[in-house]
Structure formats: structure tokens, C-alpha cells
Amino acid sequence: MFQPHHRTTTTFARDSTSDSSVFDSFRYHSTTAMTHKQRFKRVAKPILHLPRTKPTRKPRLSKSKPKLTAPESNPSSEPHISFQKTETLPREFFEIDALDLAPRLLGKFLRRDDVVLQITEVEAYRSHDTASHARFGITPRTAPLFGPGGHAYVYLCYGLHVMLNVVADKEGAGGGVLIRSCAPVCGLEVIQHRRGQITDKPILLTGPGKVGQALGLSTEWSNHPLYTPDGLELLDGPEPENILVGLRVGIQYALPEHVDALWRFAIAGSAWISAPRNTLRPPL
Predict the structure, then answer these.
(1) What is the dihedral of CA 253, 254, 255, 256, to 10 degrees?
(2) Of the residues 13, 41, 122, 246, which has the maximum number of CB atoms within 10 A of its CB?
(3) Residue 145: half-sphere exposure toward Cβ, Cα within 13 Å
């Protein structure tokens, strides 16, 4: 942070040729009554001419953050974050039960243009799940959730937060995986601009609404196929060595068996995990 510098201020006497300085420089040498022929004796104050000096400034420190490039850059210094030229995941990869797909998405890459994120935390939502939007049946909003696996299901939470889900299973199943958190791999400056935060700390992407914002998504991306190299895609990535499981977040309205289901998954040891973290444990 820059510290303010104290300027050295030098006060100079006024120029004796100006009207104001003439009257300022009068000195009276008599207290007797004066006639119209008497005049004050002017004694000019000496003018001290000092050289102008400029305050010494400290060197300016740059506030700019380094731009992330792959594969050298690693904002979190975590070994699982590495991005190389990988292939788009095939459609068949997604056509399995949401509970099976969710942990398999950990470590995979989401790419939109110059922004690449690595998935670090997810939640599974299955058909007949009272915590899932599938419980409402097919509506204009939920229709993509019942579409073919491998498509995006994007919706607004509280009318503010853009939530990205990956549709799972066969068409009509109504299963999906919510992307809860990611780690930045490429395009940090773009992510920061979209998020309105100049930081490379986990707060940048730990939360599903933050992920959607970082990717610049809107509900218009709902039903977009993620297995085609066209705007938003899911790329293959390294499988994490260890994962954590826990309760899903914010679903207290659901039936007890769904509230208590351990359908939240995260990469063990990652800092890029949303709150609460204390409900995550190694699988039995």
C-alpha cells in the first residue's frame, strides 16, 4: 500500500512590486501628528529567495497481479492444478447416474474462451431427489435438466447467482451435478474483472454463484452441450488422489434421507472448497 509523503513547504515573501506587499511592508517611525506634506518612510522587508526543492518520493510499487498462464502458473500452489492440451470429454462420459458422475468431475477442466477453471467441489442431484429441481417436473426452466447428459443446466438462485450444473444420465432422468467450487488455471485477470475482486485467494471461486460469474454465464447457456468445442466445454483432467464427501449445502427443505445424503464431493487438501468445510470427511 502506498504511504502518503509529507511535502516540504517553503513560504516565500511577496514581491515588493505588488500593491499588497507594499502595504504589508510599511513600518511606522513617528507617532506625531502629520501634515499633508509628511509621508511615511518606507522600509522594505528583505525578501529571502530560497531554491525550490522537490520532495523525495519513494519508488512506486506495482499493484498488478501476475497473469496466469498454463501450465507454469499455479495460483494456489496445489499439485492437482495443471492444465495442458487435453481433449473434450465425450458425451458418453456424462450418461451415468449423477451420483457416479459427481466425483468423476473432480479435477476436470471447464473452459470458456481464455478462462480455464479446474473443478474442485461438486454436489450430486438425482431423479426423485426432493432437494433437486427435478421435483418440480418439466418446466420451461427445468427442461434442460431432463435433457441428454453432458448438457449444461443453468439457473438463477435468488434471482442473482448464476448456477452451473452438468446434466447427468440419459435423457428424461432429471439428474445433474452442481459445480460448487473451482480453482483458476488460465485467465485470472478476466476472472477478477468479472468477479470484481482483485485477488487470487480461494474466495474468488469458492461458491457456485462465483463460478458462474467467473465464466461470464447467464441462463442463456442452459441446455448448451459441454462436449463440443463451442464456447463452454468440459475437458479431461487428472483424477485426484483423494476426495472428501459430505452433506449438501442449503437443502433443509428436503426430506431427511436427502438432507443426510453424503452427495457432496471435494478434492482432499484443496484450499478451493466452499463453506462449510467441517462437514467434509474422507469416505468410509
Answers:
(1) -80
(2) 122
(3) 29
Angle at 176 between CA 183 and CA 275, to 5 degrees: 40
- Whether the per-residue pLDDT at 78 is higher than 90: the answer is no
**Dihedrals phi, psi of 137, to nearest 5 degrees:** 80, -170
- Alpha helix locations (H) across the chain? 19-24, 91-94, 98-105, 188-195, 208-214, 256-259
DSSP 146: G
Predicted pLDDT of residue 284: 87
So what's the pLDDT on residue 160? Answer: 83
Contacts of 94 (CB under 8 A, 6+ apart): 101, 149, 150, 166, 167, 168, 169, 226, 227
CA distances to 74, 115, 204, 215, 223 from 193, in Å:
19, 12, 11, 11, 26
Check: pTM over 0.85? Answer yes or no. no
DSSP one-letter code for 30: -
